[in-house]
Amino acid sequence: MPIGYWESEHLLAPADLTVIGSGIVGMSTALHYKAIHPARRVRILERDVLGEGGTTRNAGFACFGGPGEWLDDLECLGQTRWLNLIRMRAEGLRALIELLGVEALGLEWSGGWELFDRTEAGMARAEKVHDALPHLNGAVQPLMASVLGHLAPHPTSTPALVYSPERAAHFGAHASVHLPWEGMLHTGRMVSAFHKAMQVADVQCLNGCTASAVDATDRPFVPWSIATPRGPMLSTNVAICTNGFAKGLLPGAKVNPAPNRVLVVRPRTAPPKGAYHIEDGYLYFRTLPDGQVLFGGGRHFGVELPHFPDRDPQAEARWDSLLESAAERWLGTIETVSHRWTGWLGVGEDREPLLGTTAPGLHHAVRMGGMGVAMGCGIGLKLAQTIASEAHREPLR
Length: 397
Ligand SMILES: Cc1cc2nc3c(=O)[nH]c(=O)nc-3n(C[C@H](O)[C@H](O)[C@H](O)COP(=O)(O)OP(=O)(O)OC[C@H]3O[C@@H](n4cnc5c(N)ncnc54)[C@H](O)[C@@H]3O)c2cc1C
What we know:
Elements: H1 5-11, E1 15-20, H2 24-36, E2 42-46, E3 61-62, H3 67-100, H4 102-105, E4 112-116, H5 120-148, E5 162-163, H6 165-171, E6 175-179, E7 183-184, H7 187-201, E8 204-207, E9 213-216, E10 224-228, E11 231-240, E12 256-267, E13 275-278, E14 283-287, E15 293-297, H8 313-331, E16 334-347, E17 354-359, E18 362-366, H9 372-388
Parallel strand pairs: 1-2, 1-11, 2-8, 4-13, 11-18
Antiparallel strand pairs: 3-7, 4-6, 5-6, 9-10, 10-11, 12-15, 12-16, 13-14, 14-15, 17-18
Helix pairs in contact: 2-7, 2-9, 3-5, 3-9
This protein binds flavin-adenine dinucleotide.
């Protein structure tokens, strides 16, 4: 469709920053950039009505991982990078709270629990965690206290990990470790709060607008042209925040889309309020305000789903039946399943995110793994600061 006068002169005029993808990372980048440069024009291009990645479809854990998962990360990344990863999650949560507020996020500092089952693997894992607990606590507790101490309601001396025999007994687990710094937020309210903040900050969000390519122009102040169904849109800076879908615009990026299934179930007996991690975080559940329980995960089941947007209802049903069995194992009789959905993660060889600049003004922040709710807003802050600090870029007039 040819672009009209009002569009080229105002509505679709060149932007200072164009963010591609309106997930947590994209929206945070836009808002933080606007906070640094309120007068500059910031545009988000989002291919779906709401967003089709993890941001509207996650479990709402305000979490930093659990000891089982940390042991894997320690082995894979070493102490410094492992702790840095946890720092990114804690700082991300702090940035999210500072940006949108506890109330708007529906954040409750409910605490989390990692449960170890009575299988041979579960007991072996619990044993390893037991041996490593003082080390994990010694490293993570000061970090939590320094990053979140002024926001969380508990004393800064609160440990990162504490044994919880009563939760183990409640769930018939071999062991349970309590994560007092963890919380739960309301994902829907978080996304609404982002939308409201973008309206207030005058961030233009164009939904249903897929960016199919980003090409260099020969114009010094608008060096990037983004191909969209409404024609090319020019921009001084571009931030690619498409997470698991990043390969479309960043062909060499080491990030892949990975599906996660989620059920909302009503158990006959509601579990104690909180967020729970099982099998090193591959399974998780949390209580919901209406007495139901969100139960999800299962990437380790090995059920293949076709790439988005294709679907395979039979494979989804196989995955769901494995999830339902796991839910029955932990929650007892399930009376109803009210919701079933797939959400898409962006994953890679490890759990570290991928941030970078491929050319002046062309940036990306993708691969948030299973913890982008915690991490995403801090990553958006970093990305906005990086873009704003590019001294050679003149603002558009
Ligand atoms: C089931 C599930 C449960 C989860 N639970 C938790 C949790 O409890 N706690 C936690 O911390 N994290 C959790 N996560 C992870 C978290 O949701 C993600 O890491 C986070 O939402 C990623 O945000 P993002 O902005 O990087 O990407 P996304 O939310 O994936 O957003 C990327 C956006 O880019 C858009 N897009 C893609 N390609 C294009 C294009 N070419 N043009 C325009 N737009 C495009 C997509 O439509 C999408 O909206 C969960 C994820 C899933 C799937």
